[in-house]
Amino acid sequence: MSRVFAFLIRRRGGSGWHWTDIVTWVWLVGGLVIMFGPVLWLVFSSFKTPAALSEFPPTLLPMATQTVVVEGYDKPLELYRVTTEDGEERRLAQVRRVGIVAQMVDPEDPGTLYKININDRVPVRSVDFATGNYVEPMEKNDFTLYLRNSVFVTVVATIITLLTNSMAAFALSKYSFRGRDAVMLLIVATLMVPLPVLLVPLYSVVSAVGLFDTLWGVILPTVATPTGVFLLRQYMLTIPDELLDAARMDHASEWQIYWRIILPLAAPALAVLAIFSVVWRWNDFLWPLVVLSSKENYTLQVGLNTYAGELNVQWHFILAMTVVTMIPVVLVFTFLQRYITSGIAGSGLK
Amino acid sequence: MSSGNATRNRIGAAVAAPVTFAASLLNRPLKAWQKLTGNNGMAAFFLAPNMAIFGVFVLVPLVMNFVYSMTSGSGVFLGDRNFVGADQYQRLLDCSNYLNPRTCREDLFWTAVHNTVLFVILQVAFMAVVSMITALILNGRIPARGFWRAVFFFPVLLSPVVVGLIWKWILQRQGLLNFALFESGLDPVDWLLNRDWAFAATIAVSIWAHMGFYTLILLAGLQAIPRDLYEAAEMDGTRPARVFWRITLPLLMPNLLVVIVLSLIRAVQIFDEAYVLTGGGPGTSTLYLTQYIYEVGFASLLRNPGLAAAASIVMGLVLAVLTLVQLRMGRKGEEKGKR
User: Fold this and answer.
1) Among A27, B42, B70, B195, which residue carries the largest CB count within 10 Å?
2) What is the CATH number of the domain that holds A115?
3) Same domain, A94 and A25
């Protein structure tokens, strides 16, 4: 706290506030609001009931009118704070509303019916998290299915990526064979061929091998990432060859060398690739959108987009499911931020 | 602490055991293969899985794309399609005035090209300025720098669909932004239903989502500038503005160029966030190239994969040029670094 305070009153050269201090401060606080605000707003909104969502002006926290169960009435009644003519304030439950007059009862004493002008009453509201937004879409099965598909795609694609990329990187960094440079060149050359350029023929290849509208059709085209091979190769080049030679002297097979020496030593690079792969595959949108056609195969991203594109947008569900979609990435970010930032600074990959 | 570690180790061992077992099963056949084929054979074995997938899902489509762009019809497989030569390209490029998409035969393509060019120019320019300022500020003497860096970086990891939906929710008619306008006494705006505002929204949202990435690259560059240069400038009493133009900017140039080219390459491919946010509308005001390819190739009723392939090759050529520029600059940067 004292550091923050010291920052607040810090002055350039001791002669009053320099304009750069003000710009810094404004930029940081403005950044905090603009970058963080929308996400916070999403999270708070996701706990609101449909009625609260369509309110204008909106409240920050999800609010709901309190209800009470009153003897003699089946449904819970909404609670209001009523100012009576003699200036007294009472809490009454509304039985029904006719025009501008509300029929209300005292929850303690449900015998007498009061007639109150609706302008004389204010709903009693309290913070209330509408968890139904989360439970309902999950129970309707759609989203549990999407969630499962997304988890499957992310996990399987990451495992295959790590395995195949590390094997290829091992061959490209530790063996000399004819055509190695050609293979390397090929990989580097396609490093920058983006998906939109391959969309049409890739669709037909995936259909031809019978993977159209399957989760494997989503997984396989993404796993041979040139970026991954490149990243791992660069790292494996720093592992000394003497280590491998020593193992060979001890009659280790090449497979054992890969499995017992190279993989453990390349763990930091593998961790970076794993983190990126998880984020990439979890967030993939265009390719799953093209290759998946039946609803039960949708991933979360495609499912969300479909729901949001419907004529009758059910925002209360969509907002909640958007939060669910965000959770894994937020977890990855909070716990593994260090790896991500160093990975980007080190190789410019994304 | 130690008991926690022990549990973690035990869990790790339990997960690793079957994997290690599977790996050891592979050892014997692979040893035989090694004896039979030598080191070259092993290299082939290690390369095979990756290169097989790479070949089928990257190389083959890459070559096929050229063939596709010279065929017509709506069939998915090449056998069902007619060879038409350069017809699709002619159709794409048939235009009496390239500056006015309405005079073109494929007016949608040219609308997408116009939108994309304008998007790229504005987005890259603003992106460079915004991430530059942010990097400079994050590099200054501020408390809790790690926290502030995280604040600007975290949207990079959010999925484009999530980004699109977050902003769709804020920009809708009864959304937060209109409430803020209302509170300050201004009239609400239909942000996503007005052509110009929707276009601006796609630019702003994509900057919001990606600026953290470029800020990080610039920050790495700033931190590599030797401190003594600034100390010397301070001793000479150089004005801050002059320090920026004479020291910071020239030394940061390689990173700034990387940022500009990388964001150019990404901006040309803009799709996900914009598609979720506006769906290309209102009308065609936010229809970008990738969405054009997607709609012509897959989504529209009168799908025409050949035309989509031709359009994707045009886009691929632009990207190839940009990539070459980038590689060239990367090499120059390396030389500079070595010196």
Assistant:
1) B42
2) 2.30.30
3) no
- A189 lies in the same domain as A70: no
CB contact at 8 A, A275 and A340: yes
A177, A192, A289 member nearest B319 (Cβ): A192
Q: Are residues A82 and A208 located together in one domain of the fold?
A: no
Answer yes or no: is A53 within a domain: no
Residue whose structure tokens are 């929204």: B201
Asked if the structure places residue A51 within a domain, the reply is no
Residues of B with Cβ-Cβ distance to A175 under 8 angstroms: 39-40, 42-43, 46
Whole-angstrom distance, CA of residue A38 vs CA of residue A40? 6
Q: Exposed, middle or buried, B60 (CB in 10 Å: 0-12/13-18/19+)?
A: middle
Tokens linked to A136: 């309902």
Domain shared by A298 and A331, yes or no: yes
Range of the domain at A38: 2-45
Provide the domain count of chain A. 3
State residue A89 phi and psi, 5-degree precision: -110, 130
Q: Which residues of B touch A28 (CB under 8 A)?
A: 137, 142, 148
Whether B257 has its CB under 8 Å from any CB of chain A: the answer is no
- Interchain contact, B265 vs A285, CB within 8 Å: no
In tens digits, what is the pLDDT along chain A, a chain of 350 residues?
Answer: 455 555 555 555 445 567 778 888 899 999 999 999 899 988 888 888 877 777 777 777 777 777 777 777 777 777 777 777 777 777 777 777 777 787 787 777 777 777 777 777 777 777 777 777 888 878 876 888 899 999 999 999 999 999 999 999 999 998 888 888 888 888 877 776 788 888 888 998 898 888 899 999 999 998 888 888 988 998 899 889 999 899 989 988 888 899 888 998 998 889 888 888 998 999 999 999 999 988 889 999 998 888 887 767 788 888 888 898 888 888 888 888 777 777 676 555 55
* CB contacts, 8 Å: A224 with chain B: 50-51, 53-54, 57-58
CATH topology of domain B96-338: MetI-like fold (1.10.3720)
Residues of chain B with CATH 1.10.3720.10: 96-338
Same domain, A117 and A8: no
Give the number of other Cβ atoms within 10 Å of residue A187's Cβ: 23
Length of chain A: 350
Domain identity same for A191 and A329: yes
Q: Identify the H or E element spanning A15.
A: none
Sequence-distant contacts of B80-84: CB under 8 A, at least 24 apart: B81/B305, B81/B306, B84/B306
Q: Please name which of A219, A221, A220, A237 lies closest in space to residue A169, comparing C-alpha atoms.
A: A237
Angstrom CA distances, B309 to B88, B257, B274, stand at: 9, 31, 22
The one-character DSSP state at B284 is T
Q: Verify that A116 and A176 share a domain, yes or no.
A: no
- Indicate the residue of B26, B61, B165 with minimum beta-carbon distance to A318: B165
* Dist CA B178 CA B181 (whole Å): 5
Look at residue A202 and tell me if it is in a domain: yes
Flag whether A168 is in a domain. Answer: yes
